[in-house]
Amino acid sequence: MTLKALWHGLFGTWYNAFLSLAVIWLLAVWLPPMFHWAILDAKIAPDPAACRASFGACWGFITEKHRLILFGAYPFDQHWRPLIASMLFVVLLATSCNPRFWHTSLALGWMLGLTVIFVLMHGGALGLSVVESAMWGGLPLTLILAVFGLALAFPIAVLLALGRRSHLPIIRALCVTFIELVRGVPLISLLFMASVMVPLFLPEGITVAKLVRAEIGLIIFAAAYSAESVRGGLQALNRGQEEAADALGLSYFHKTWYIVLPQALRIAIPSITNNFISTFKDTSLVVIIGMFDLLGALKAGLNDAQWRSFYAEGYLFVAAIYFVFTFSMSKYSQYLERDIARTAPKPS
Questions:
Q1: What pLDDT score was predicted for residue 121?
Q2: How far apart are CA 117 and CA 301, in angstroms?
Q3: Domains and CATH numbers, the chain
Q4: I want to staple 10 with a disulfide (CB 3.0 to 4.6 A). Which of 20, 138, 155, 176 is the partner?
Q5: Count of C-beta atoms within a 10 Å radius of residue 321
Q6: pTM score
């Protein structure tokens, strides 16, 4: 963008000029005191008395409680295990975003990586002590809920979207009923149902870990919402694509797999990304069933009376972590849209 274009965008009309000047004024008023509070007058040392005597931010709370916030109730002397597991999660996700690695070895890498993550988190092998999933918390729990929830929900969402458009009345009715029932209730109710009702349907003596029950509720919720996004992409697709596939004699599977779904999913990328971001943030609701994810672990840290008044710093710290992940998802979806638009065949 040239300087002339930037000037025209900011001050080209009287209302653009008014809005630009208003934003500049607000930034000039807000940024200096924020800079003083967050940096110049801030306290980094974990000293509650010094923080109370200061007018700046108390980052000493983060210094003191960062391990509790990041890893929850996981045994303190074993924090290196969830740290490595979280780093491995990030490496796997970053690798999966690069098209150069989209081949069979990526699936093998995920299988190996998830095995290592489970061994690190649970233990019981290689001399590692056993840590039950009830003690998992913080960032690793958030990543586990989000990654497994979204990975398992997406194929279910595609099947639900195809089923909702099916010509078979029973299949269509079942998919519509499932989607509308799930979308008609809040996630909190699904988590309660998964946590309280699932054990009632199991044979006596058989139990399912709370983590698995919460994951089931999250998968059901994400699948129903993503199904509508996929259905929107299917409906936006030109009917002539399917008619051309039928004219070529392609089977339903080949038509759907090679022609319909790739184009429909490309159209639905923004909506699907929005659902993924929302689901990632919704993992914080598992605190209501007694699980301490990233946000729940922060609340546990604020239970310490001497640090209770420094909640703003804690929430800013957690918000920054959520922002890094959600912003990365948003930018990656934009990259996918540009890349698909660049490589898609141009109409003649």
A1: 93
A2: 25
A3: 70-136 (no CATH), 138-348 (1.10.3720.10)
A4: 20
A5: 17
A6: 0.86
